[in-house]
Amino acid sequence: MAMSKSAKKAFYVLIADDSADDRFLLRNTIRRAGRLQIVGEVSHGAEVISYLEGCAEFGDRHKFPLPDLLLLDLKMPNKDGFEVLKWLKEQSFPKLTVVVLTDSMHSEHIKRALDLGADLFQVKPRTNDDRLTLLLALEDHLLQAALTDTPSTRAGHTTQAYA
After folding, report:
1. In CATH, which superfamily holds the domain spanning 11-149+158-162?
2. Alpha helices (H) along 14-152
3. What is the pTM of this model?
4. 41 phi and psi, to 5 degrees?
5. Is 46's pLDDT higher than 70?
6. Tens digits of per-residue pLDDT, 64-99?
7. Where along the chain do its domains lie?
8. Distance between CA atoms of residues 138 and 69, nearest Å
9. Region 6-35: what's the mean pLDDT?
10. Nearest to 97 by CA among 69, 121, 66, 122
11. Which residues contact 76 (CB under 8 A, 6 or more apart)?
């Protein structure tokens, strides 16, 4: 099967989580996934927006390229994950896949996140094996989307929630 022109060798990941421990665990696991490459780590929602807008220290797109995948925590200071999702819904990032990684399994949080445009709602994996399984599945999802030229869109996309 021939790869389409949009198939990428690497998929850029932006990690947004106020927990340094959770960022560390994700960073170490992402290193084990062949095509995922971290392009940035931020600790609050306002930084997510600054990164995606290319503002302030994130103005150099060579150093801080737009991500293909945003791993977004819900509970963060200076704009929480819901506020980031609300902002994203009003923007145009058609190739961005947004995965909410959180400790919350409140049904209203799941519904709200998916209604605001998250592509996936996932409870943070607690083991290295579970984390790797999740990231490899996300990598496969991004690869399949690139192969079929079907980018995620912020409006009318398929959403899923997993416990």
Report:
1. Response regulator (3.40.50.2300)
2. 20-30, 45-53, 81-89, 107-115, 128-147
3. 0.86
4. -135, 130
5. yes
6. 999 999 999 999 999 999 999 999 999 989 889 999
7. 11-149+158-162
8. 9
9. 90
10. 69
11. 16, 17, 18, 43, 44, 45
